[in-house]
Amino acid sequence: MVRLVRAELRKLFGLPTAWVGLVLGTLAAPLIVLLNAPYTRRAIAAGTVTDTSDLGLRELGLGLIGPMILGVIMVSSEYTSTGPDSPGARQLTTTLTAVPDRRRLLTAKTTALVLVVAAQAAVTATAALSLAEVLHGDHTSMPAAARVAGAILYWTLTALLAYAITLITRNGIVPLTFLIINSAVVSVSYLLTKVTDLAAYLPDIVGARMFLRTADFPVEISPLTAGLVMTAWVAALLAVGGVLFHRRDV
Amino acid sequence: MNTARAELRKLLTLPSLRLTVLLTWTAHLALTCAYRVAESRGEPLGDNAALAPIVYTQAGFLVLGVLAASSEYEEGGQIRTTLLASPRRLPLQAVKALTLAVVTLPVAATTAATSALPAGEATWTPAATAYLTLTTLLGAAFATVVRRSVLAVILLLGLYFIAGPLLRAWFATSAAYLPDTAALDPSRGAAATVGWTLCALALAALTFHRRDA
Asked: Is the ipTM of this complex over 0.90?
């Protein structure tokens, strides 16, 4: 199993697009904290921002494009053809020749993805929070460890969500478009919360409840329930994706 | 003329383009309905209900452009066959852009009308149609340079949906220079959209002319 995970990690790090995801995802949040600093300072001085407990954590939402790319690319790269001269051959054919047991393969892939994204989330969360501490130290304190853990979990679950959707669609562009639009500053899910309160239980909205305190939520949900709801979404989609991956032809 | 007919047939028979158009229309209808419902509940989501859904559905048009251009470079290297049939690259590139515009125009017009007519602002339809068509051409030009669909989609959407809004929030003056401002405020961003699209098309033509296929 360790060898399988290592192989999957090596495949992932060999993809140029995965590096786009790694670099963008890791740098986005700290960079935004840095660039937002003058505005945040002015807002705190003017008194328009009274609750600073989300400083540094809120910005993590914009780095989510990283785990999304990683989750999608982990699957979609297997389904693209290996080269212009052999359009019929997909990497998945080779992968399954090496590891015919699809359940083990999927477990290894999932483990590799979780390892990479959790590490990325830990790095970027530390960087964003330390920067916020350095820049606005007098107004804010380091958030509790449980909230940081919630943020890391949110990143990991988002990557798994992207991964599960791609297992179902077997194509990278549809899930990527859908997910990136939804990670925009005003996301589609957020718009839906204005239409129906049920939208508060969509995975990306409910997940943010795990670590954000001041965001605009229509329904009161405790962080623990939020985590469980998002995990349930991801587990359901992963189950569907897993069954399809197990049953479908290559 | 033959080239145009061939390019047109290629675009019309690509299943991925048809799927993109269908998904875009579905998403656009759903968003337009969501905006109507939110407005009737007394929580309007934007100042301009005719244009607001387009801010999201323009993603479908970007993808449309990217897929139209990058399909030539996918498995099998169709571009080599294309160049064998019509070796003069600059005219070929011009014909490609023109046919894509012709194919996109009705799709864009339908999309624009879907959100503009119920909002009672039919006058926005031509502007929105032009914007969506230009956005598609920009996507296609970008993908001609990048040549890989997934990477092109990531970069374009990251630019339009993450970097763009942030830049507008940080530097208010930058709005007039960003290609996607026109979707929010047509009077301010129109020139930038046209300018960026023309630049992208010129860059695409240049690289297509110079680079190995």
From this structure: no
